[in-house]
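thread: overnight batch results

M.L. [08:02]
morning all. the overnight job finished for the chain we discussed friday. pasting input first so we're all looking at the same thing
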Amino acid sequence: MDPKLINDCVHCGFCLPTCPTYALWGEEMDSPRGRIHLMKQHVEGTPVTPEMAGHFDACLGCMACVTACPSGVRYDRLIEQTRAEVERTHVRDPRDRAVRGLVFGLFPYPRRLRLLRPGLGIARRLAPFLARAHPGLGAMAGLAPEVARRQRLPRLVRARGPRRAVVGMLTGCVQGEFFPQVNAATARVLALEGCDVIVPAGQGCCGALSVHSGRRDQARRLARRTVRAFRKAGVETVVVNAAGCGSTMKEYGDLLGEEPGFRVVDLSEWLAELGPAAERHPLPVTVAYHDACHLAHAQGVRAQPRELLRGIPGLELREVPDSAVCCGSAGTYNIFQPEAARDLGDRKAKAVGSTGAELLVSANPGCTMQIAAAMRREGAAIRVAHTAEVLDASLRGVGL
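M.L. [08:03]
and the structure it wrote out:
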């Protein structure tokens, strides 16, 4: 933990109303400034106690406090450093260690995730029984999405019409295996907007889930593999369609100690920068757009997805109340902290439901699963799509 970053905090309290866990429990030590106080105690010699680790574990890492802080405190870096220290020194309960081992031995590896695809529907039905063994297992099963037919992307998707750019595309792990239709839509949209899209083999997981949970060694191994794949492909720009992945890849310089040699951009960020070229066909649909925390707070990308959606004729965009508050997904948070995640998910589901929208648009697979599960619990299931899928339907003139 960096003492200089810790001392940047003046304990003003501007972070308090933005923090989801402080809003849930009203506990000072479950606020950003409270956790920074605990970090300072540890730097000054206090060992990481189980209670201290619990407060750090309860943080979603949503970065809403970073957006709100007038002093520019880099809480994002502090909590990642702290989680690495917790993982290094804190001994967890054997059941918790087993569940964490399962998650980090499974989710960052697409081939292993692929083996789960046929059983996801059954897993969701077994969620109550699995919860008896461990709440995290029940939560993980309850989040299981309805997976689309697997779609293989070619290594090169040619631009339609005049070529305007050449980009690499991250396929990811959860996105690639559980939401293959999102990657297919992303490649089509980029091609229709004049991009040659290179999809390198062997790219795998970017390391986001690992780095956000303090497993920096695993994150570095995965990140280096991803960097090698895109360097070998010779691309200067890599487009990412998952908020958590984009946030991590933009911080590769800090994680690896050197810049990756290519620029990382979110899909909506890139399309807004490139400007529209293909014709937009009407989509008569009401849409609620969900701000993924690692897109809005960590990357500062808020206006671009809304601009892209508003550019579609016939589409009505509705704002979700308290859109800056985390939905409770936060990477693996909804598995490791299922009760808090469920409370936040239910709040988000009510907010989305209040819009009366027909379709929820999200730019992160974890958020998509979290909110869809919460809406099912509310008995108000809603269709969920990625920004890329909505644009793809409009550009091709097909229904959603």
